[in-house]
Protein: Aminotransferase class V domain-containing protein
Amino acid sequence: MDKYLLFTPGPVNVAQTLRAAISKEDICHREPDFDNLLRSIEHKLISLFQIRNRARYRAVVITGSGTAANEAILSSVVGKGAILILSNGEFGDRLHKTSVIHNKHTHLLEMPWGTPFDVAQIEAYMAAHKIDVVAMVHHETCSGMLNPLAQIGVLVKANGALFVVDGVSSIGAELIDMEVCHIAFVSSSSSKAIGSYPGLSFVAKNASSN
Ligand SMILES: *Cc1c(COP(=O)(O)O)cnc(C)c1O
Structure:
């Protein structure tokens, strides 16, 4: 029996099948066995994001938490451009705090926790400011609410910007269709709804995004 039950969104108690899988033979990370393992993980991640046109997408594994995956995106895709963070909770706020460290032109549209975004307000904001990247949390873990990926994705695309999504607590539980929602970059982590051990995170990207 488990020593204790974890009721956090992550880390979670892992399945016995996962415990068994992790205790297979050791492999060397400089050998083809590891390359093959990494390639098979990338293949599965691309499937997880519902991608049909596989040649246009890549997925990478990051040896860090979900926060590291978000920081990897925010510190590398904005460049000298402007980014708009949409926040209606704790993790949206964290995207903003991280972006401010890396991007001089960080804009913020904020709603109180648990309050849906006002699409007309975002549209007006983007019409009035030159925005190159928009970042948003999919599942706001603090309130349990889902933000509308498809609706915001269409708006971001119509304005010629890149859409960045924090999918850390949703992927594995909720469907994320990168192609349909026009998502350029999405983060996820091993230890929430994917149900594995903490310590790894993932970024999937549309290869034509930069
Ligand atoms: C938990 C969480 C994070 C941070 O992930 P860590 O693995 O704890 O660093 C980021 N975004 C969301 C939406 C989360 O739920």
About this structure: The pocket of pyridoxal-5'-phosphate is lined by residues 9-10, 65-67, 91, 137, 141, 166, 168-169, 189 (CB under 6 Å). The mean pLDDT is 95. The longest helix spans residues 32-48. The chain has one domain: 16-209.
